UniProtKB/TrEMBL annotation:
The keyword Ribonucleoprotein does not apply. The lineage of its organism: Bacteria, Pseudomonadati, Pseudomonadota, Alphaproteobacteria, Hyphomicrobiales. The keyword Ligase does not apply. Pfam families: Mo-co_dimer, Oxidored_molyb. The gene is soxC. It comes from Vineibacter terrae. NCBIfam families: sulfite_DH_soxC (TIGR04555). This is Sulfite dehydrogenase. One of its GO terms (molecular function) is molybdopterin cofactor binding. Residues 293-407 form the Moybdenum cofactor oxidoreductase dimerisation domain. Transmembrane segments: none annotated.
Amino acid sequence: MRVAAPPLRSSRRGLLAGVGAAAATAGLLHPRLALAKGGENLPPNVPEWTRMLGAGVSEKPYGNPSPFEKHVVRRNVEWLTATEQSSVSFTPLPDLEGIVTPSGLCFERHHAGVPEIDPQQHRLIIHGMVDRPLIFTMDDLVRFPSVSRILFLECPANGGMEWKGAQMNGCQFTHGMVHCCEWTGVKLSTLLAEAGVRPEAKWMLVEGADGAVMTRSIPLAKAMDDCIVCYAQNGERIRPEQGYPVRLMVPGWEGNVNVKWLRRIKLGDRPWQHREETSKYTDLMPDGKARQFTFVLDANSVVTFPCPEKPLKFGKGFYEIRGLAWSGRGRIKRVDVSLDGGDNWQSAQLQEPVLSQALTRFRLPWTWDGAPALVQSRAIDESGYVQPTIDQLRAVRGVNSIYHKNAQQTWRVNPDGTVNNVQIL
Ligand SMILES: Nc1nc2c(c(=O)[nH]1)N[C@H]1C(S)=C(S)[C@@H](COP(=O)(O)O)O[C@H]1N2
Ligand SMILES: [Mo]
């Protein structure tokens, strides 16, 4: 069978015309009609996979991605940490679409590795300034009224290698300490009501069951507002790396306080001043003082296409710029994209639904003329906060910080279509 050129072009056109704004791009891509010359699996040949039976239903009781997607994996940076257990792996943002991160691709940040916890033997203790100290089994937790929310989680060290200049030539590494999943569990306020909060309680200590015994202090107001004690992620039980069998989700707040393998909650009247809120997870300011308890994550965004891992490989012509934006303060209101390093801006299209404290996908059609370009995105959230330039952020924060680097990212597109991480000073 031979497919002639005209019908192929007109069916393409029909397809694009059906999707509104995309109609403007009809005919711009000029896909080439490449026919098979030998025995390849290309038209007009019948591919080999069409001529045989496929795998049966129970060969893979738990499914995996196609073997052709083997390159889509979490990666770490070997020189960044001294051990594999106290380390971080990065979400492959450039390979992802939409807003939900597949569970197996969520970045991981562990301070003492991933414990293997038997849910039958795991307990959550609530004590301190409560009327009735309580110990919950996993069955107890699942029995309570439940809630689900799609939430981003970002390590405040995301982008922390870029304070003094562009360093990591890959979007996975400059921005991959963020994931966005559907989380299900019981509202922490429900459990605290069960225990009875004493009036003098103002803070809460949360502690993990891993070897790091991760401990953080959180104001009680946040605990009562929207924290969720979660046992499910993207519809199934939480992955071991993300805190199986139970973790705390603290919407919009720095990743570190989202304690995994949650085993203990204590109420008190002041913060505990643990290591992770004094020596670590504080922001060293230009005057030499350290800022403590920077809980809320300010708006951030990044263009995930094009980026160093995803060059413009078709030469000049049509491309769709794609990216992600998020804010700990609520919904993303607008994302602007610049192609000339911040001189001119265009508003990108936001993919619905735009959810509070979740990743938001933005897109902008672009016809590249082959000239060098400086591609940037700038997120504006519903509080009116505008994502700063790296200069603006450094003016306030200096360059000695590690955490909370949310400056606009610049990708330089070179005439050959390759893309580099640069900073405009
Ligand atoms: N118990 C425990 N909880 C923890 C950690 C940890 O090492 N132990 N790491 C924290 C840090 S620093 C971050 S950024 C997030 C990472 O969550 P993730 O592994 O699901 O990406 O978990 C937090 N919760
Ligand atoms: Mo973190």
